[in-house]
Design goal:
Helix content is about 60%, strand content about 15%. The chain has about 300 residues and is of the alpha/beta class. It folds into 2 domains: about 1-115, no CATH class; about 130-300, no CATH class. The strands form 3 sheets. A 5-stranded parallel sheet has the order 1-4-7-10-13. The protein has a 4-stranded parallel sheet with strand order 2-5-8-11, with no helix packed on it. The protein starts with a helix and ends with a helix.
Length: about 300
């Protein structure tokens, strides 16, 4: 029951956002009849005797004053629907994360729908902080996660540079000399993993191979992020050749990129694919694959 309710709430939010995006602009409050009104982060007030079509607000309330008329639906996401005396809604009156308040003489042609959510949910966050306030808090949580993640990546990179410096250096050099090959291997590797999950997911073989492959993919991704960071740092600090200071500078740049809203996540993903592809296309990986192929006939002969 609770799960289905959360799905309904999420679907309603997505629908409301799509309506906002498709509208292109946020309509100003108007007395013009037969017009849809969408507000973002504020209340909508339908004046006395005003006639409008659909009314939708996100992180706000819908207020229909005396004898106001909504010929379509009245929807408030993260707010209330307040209908004053004589107000009329021909369609549905829906309050997601709020309440519907009706005075005498109110007419609702469709359904009066109230969808509530437990304290601490997305809708309650909308009501408490507003849309941009909620987005800001989500951004801070996301930024904290990426900062801690890049800190862990940097520690791993420093350890690798101290123990096997040529390992990361060779991958960074592969990215530098063969960028197209690196991005090709990166995309191919991720696609191969997705195909593996689709083909054997849910089977006994999949229960064995998929966790192992996921672990290997995760390790290669961590190494790849360090390698692309080392590559970026080398481009910035050209006075050295693939050193720990360059790695740290690259880590900081990668972390800063990840904090850019929307586009930063896309850029970080592309750079991660570059780094992952650099691992797959590196001389070390090619040597491992060559050794593996050479061992296969010998094993068959012994059998």
């Amino acid at each position: 029951m609770a799960h289905n309710r959360k799905i309904r709430i999420f679907a309603a939010i997505v629908l409301a956002l799509l309506m906002l995006l498709l509208s292109g602009t946020v309509a100003a409050q108007t007395t013009t009849s037969n017009r849809d009104i969408i507000h973002f982060g504020s209340d909508i007030t339908i004046a006395e005797n005003e006639v409008v079509n659909d009314v939708t607000t996100i992180a706000g309330s819908v207020i229909v004053l005396n004898n106001g008329h909504v010929t379509g639906d009245a929807v408030a996401v993260g707010g209330d629907v307040r209908l004053k005396a004589g107000a009329k809604v021909d369609g549905d009156a829906t309050a997601i994360g709020g309440e519907i308040f009706q005075e005498e003489g109110v007419t609702i042609g469709g359904d009066a729908v109230t969808i509530t959510e437990e304290d601490g949910g997305i809708i309650q966050g909308l009501r408490r902080w507003g849309f941009w306030g909620l987005l800001g808090r989500i951004y801070l949580i996301n930024a904290t996660f990426y900062a801690l993640f890049m800190l862990a990546v940097g520690i791993i990179g420093i350890v690798l540079m101290l123990l096997v410096p040529t390992f990361l250096q060779s991958i960074a050099e592969t990215i530098n000399q063969k960028p197209l090959l690196s991005i090709g291997w990166g995309l191919g590797g991720f696609i191969a993993f997705l195909l593996l999950v689709i083909l054997i997911g849910g089977s006994l073989l999949g229960s064995i191979l998929i966790p192992i492959t996921t672990l290997m993919l995760g390790l290669a991704k961590l190494v790849g992020i360090n390698a692309i960071s080392l590559f970026i740092g080398e481009k910035i600090l050209r006075n050295q050749r693939y050193s720990i200071p360059q790695l740290l500078v690259g880590i900081v740049v990668m972390a800063a990129i990840s904090l850019i809203p929307v586009f930063g996540g896309m850029a970080f993903l592309i750079l991660t694919i570059f780094g992952f592809g650099g691992v797959l296309a590196s001389p070390w990986m090619m040597e491992q694959m060559t050794n593996f192929r050479h061992k296969q006939p010998a094993l068959s002969a012994d059998d």
